Amino acid sequence: MGSITVIGLGPGDFGLITLESWEKLQKAEHLYFRTEKHPTVPFIKERGVSFSSYDSFYEGAESFEALYEAIAKDLVKKAKKENLVYAVPGSPMVAEKTVVLLREYAKTANIPLEIIPGMSFVEVLYSKLGIDPIDGMTIIDAEDFDQLPVDMPTGLVITQVYNDRIASDTKLSLMEVFPDDYPVVYIHKLGMADESIRTIKLYELDRQADIDYLTSLYVPAYRRQPTFDITPLKDIVHTLRSPGGCPWDIAQTHASIRTNLIEETYEVLEAIDLEDGHLLCEELGDLLLQVVFHARMAEETGDFSMQQVIDDATEKLVRRHPHIFGDVQASDAGAAILAWESIKKQEKKERKSVLDGIPMGLPALMAAQKLQHKAAKVGFDWDEIEPVWLKIQEELSELKEACQEENEEHIQEELGDVLFSIVNLARFLQVDSELALISCNRKFKTRFQYVEKKVKQSGKDWSEYSLAELDEFWNESKKS
Fold first, then answer.
1. Predicted pLDDT of residue 24
2. pLDDT tens, residue by residue, 163-194
3. Whose CA is closest to 105, among 97, 116, 95?
């Protein structure tokens, strides 16, 4: 059983090989280089040191991952019969995949492994770029961009940018995180007499004429701006509405897409009820699109802009929260609501009726609850819930009478009174009648679809089932 000693050839200049590594090179009976393509190799050969390299492995490898694995396994195989020294570019423990694999395979095979510390290109990089490593540094192989974090808190060093293809892949991967014109430092032949260190824009990376195995890249630390920016969405809507844009978007008016706003609002409510954060994010985006779209149409006619929408909302929030942004005291939520309502009343002096301010387009249940709430604020309300129950019974009796008369207009009127009374009950129970009915609709849909599935699975037609049999499926759905 032999052993493995791993040494580093330094970052480029022959003088940067450590004394211990040089002694190991000279004394090695079996010496293997990962690659001969390293600036120190000509000087090593001049001094009579002979070795074998794994450059031939590069030609048949399907990927770098497969290449590194093949090299590591071959070294372990050889080490079962001989004591060998394995030399890698730079430092053995800095961005050297074969050494990472070698440690694992040697341990499994019970082969002694010694790693001699060496100097890496990183030390030279610190000096050349004036970087203090205390600020942090992320080093990654150009082939490992699936491990790249979205928010890069440190500077990023990318090694082994071997050729145009890898440079292009690197650029495209980085552009998923960084702006296309983000300044990066292109590094070629670091630490050598003809080194080149130059700042370029990210999109220019694969256009460099001197890309080869001595190319690496430094990307300064970048953090995504935490500030809210609606500009991209505004720009897209502007493009869609501009000449040459989307014919459908161009044709829309405030009135033509008013129902879209309602639909998107209810989809947001559904996401909230489902407690689905991912869906809520998506639906809020759809709702925001409606706001931006309406603002864009208003901007085109000179009525107002998106910025005015944001400014007005901001000013209103500040104005209606004097207990936060002013000198008014509010000890609890109730006091805060009173302050809000008082200021709102001053702002809406044009309103003559207590019931003013309820949009005509609101869903009927929601409008009924708001009408009752506004009337209750001036004392037009029962003090307790019992009369509400009695009122419902009264309205139901009147509906029955109307049905007996077979007067369609009267039936509609009395049914409306029943619904209005039910909404009043919901208000006393502190339940939102609109949301309660939405929840009920959703429950009905889920249970009916269960019944539907059962009928379909049976291979029978709906007409072949009695109502009692269908009710059995319905009751099953309550348990599923």
1. 92
2. 888 888 888 888 877 889 999 999 888 877 78
3. 97
Q: What's the pLDDT tens digit per position in 31-43?
A: 999 989 888 899 9
135/156 Cα distance (integer angstroms): 12
**b/e burial code for range 338-359 (CB count within 10 A of at least 16 → b):** ebbeebeeeeeeeeeeeeeebe
Share of the chain above pLDDT 70, in %: 89
Q: What is the pLDDT of residues 113-143, one digit of tens each?
A: 999 988 887 888 888 888 877 777 777 777 6
pLDDT surpasses 80 at 91: yes
Angle CA 171–173–174, to nearest 5: 65
Q: Report the C-alpha gap between 371 and 29 in whole angstroms.
A: 95
Are the CB atoms for 305 and 298 separated by under 8 Å?
yes
- How far is it, in rounded angstroms, from Cα 90 to Cα 97? 12
